[in-house]
Amino acid sequence: MRRYDWLKEIQRLDPERDFLRIYRITATHEFPWDLTRALELALYRTYAVPSIGRLLDETAQLTDRAQKRYDDTALLLDAVVEHGFEHEDGLDAIRRINQMHRGYDISDDDMRYVLCTFVVTPKRWLDAYGWRRLSEREKHAMAVYYRTLGRHLGIPDIPRSYPEFERCLDAYEDAHFGWDEGARRVSDATLDLMASWYPAPLAPLVRGASMALLDDSLLRAFRYDRPKPAVRTLVRSALRLRAKAVRLLPPRTSPHYARQNPEIKGYPFGYNLSDLGTFPEPRGSGGAVPGCPVPQNRERS
Fold it and tell me: Taking each helix axis from N to C terminus, what angle separates 32-46 and 66-83, rounded to the nearest 10 degrees?
């Protein structure tokens, strides 16, 4: 294969009909490392909305068990990418996500905003640091993929196109980003987690590099000092240099899924999708999952 052969295949596909195939190529062949970093940043952005950051602090999932929360989130989202919306494993992952969310009082607006971060943040990351930018078909397919995921999660009034996702995200951040003490604790714990993936002497450098990638709206919301311009320039230039090197590499012929990432550390002997995540008491009677739009799985031996 040549470097742009995957893109040529994408150009032959219909983003409304073949959105899963296109998104899977983009995420697992063309940009697996970049999409991992971008989705980390996408979830991190959500903490700056006080209602989200405060809830995450109250559950203690990202302050006391940050690695498990990271692993479980990545693995559940990854299962849908790998298996799709009709395969039982993909549906199991969606049910598990719904069971977690329905146990807490999360507004539809917050859920919609989180979905928007999954669409917009990767595109903006690749604009800045990718070895190429997303094509129009890829942006279209990404919007359809997350529109479909949002429907399975019962989110109303989902944007239909990439521009609509982008407008929704920007408007929500402008209206809702702000300071919250609990959200700051969640932010600190997340930065500490990322630093823990590297040898201890490198931890301050990793944390500093992570801070250098945050935009001013995030820094203000968490009340962090603005990184020195030279540090920002160094970190961002290093990522752009990496992109130039990646452009010269041959294309990936086998898919790379998030479960293969070295940052996933909590399940060295494997895992069951039904065991991942948190198990809060449902906000309904009889142990039901209120509002879950995906039929419950049959019992298994």
Answer: 130
